[in-house]
Specification:
This protein is mainly α. It is built from 8 helices and 2 strands; from the N terminus they run ββαααααααα. The chain has one domain. Strand 1 and strand 2 form a beta hairpin.
Length: 201
């Protein structure tokens, strides 16, 4: 059974259907995986379009989610809930409402930058038909450099090679395109639950 919970997007003037599997509460291990994935989605947006905490806080205001993401400190604590981040200071458990709010914020930001995301994915598709590498294309090269540098700076996980980070960054880039449309929150939430279930298995 799937329940559709309507969330108002005040900035866009639309209602986005937000599905929650029944029962709606992922367990703690699933939430660990979900918060790690959400942090990576935001990291990909940072690397591609240079969003900072102010843009995230503005998105929260646009969506009437200030109660969850009220200031830089609350945002930092949510991002630090990613279990693979360096350091433990300020880390907190991510609850279901916070996870849903971060999904809405991530998709709102992706929608705002849909043109750049689409341009990057189109470039990726174009070079797939040639012998060129993503690093040889300005927009993609900058994105990959930013993503790799930021990931290595923030994450405690050292097992990923540069090649693996490139693969992860490109996968996230393609995902962002799907999350940038009006069905983005539905797609991202279902993808998070699916990956969390697979991680458990």
């Amino acid at each position: 059974m799937v329940m559709d919970i309507p969330l108002h997007n005040h900035h866009q003037g639309k209602i986005l259907s937000f599905p929650l599997a029944d029962p709606a509460q992922p367990d703690s291990s699933q939430l660990d995986n979900i918060k790690a994935q959400l942090d990576l989605v935001l990291l990909a947006l940072e690397a591609l379009v240079g969003i900072g905490s102010e843009a995230v806080l503005q998105a929260a205001a646009d969506l009437n989610l200030q109660a969850v993401v009220s200031d830089r400190v609350s945002l930092w604590r949510l991002r630090q809930s990613n279990p693979v981040r360096r350091g433990t200071g300020g880390r907190k458990k991510l609850d279901i409402e916070e996870a849903r709010s971060l999904v809405m914020i991530s998709c709102h930001l992706a929608q705002q930058h849909q043109t750049t995301i689409r341009e990057a994915v189109t470039l990726l598709e174009d070079i797939a038909e040639t012998q060129r590498q993503p690093h040889q294309v300005a927009l993609l090269g900058d994105y990959l450099d930013n993503f790799t540098n930021t990931y290595q700076d923030r994450m405690a996980e050292d097992a990923l090679t540069t090649e693996a980070l490139t693969d992860l960054a490109l996968k996230l880039l393609i995902d962002l395109l799907f999350y940038s449309n009006n069905q983005g929150p539905r797609r991202l939430w279902m993808a998070l639950l699916d990956r969390a279930n697979h991680a458990e298995g």
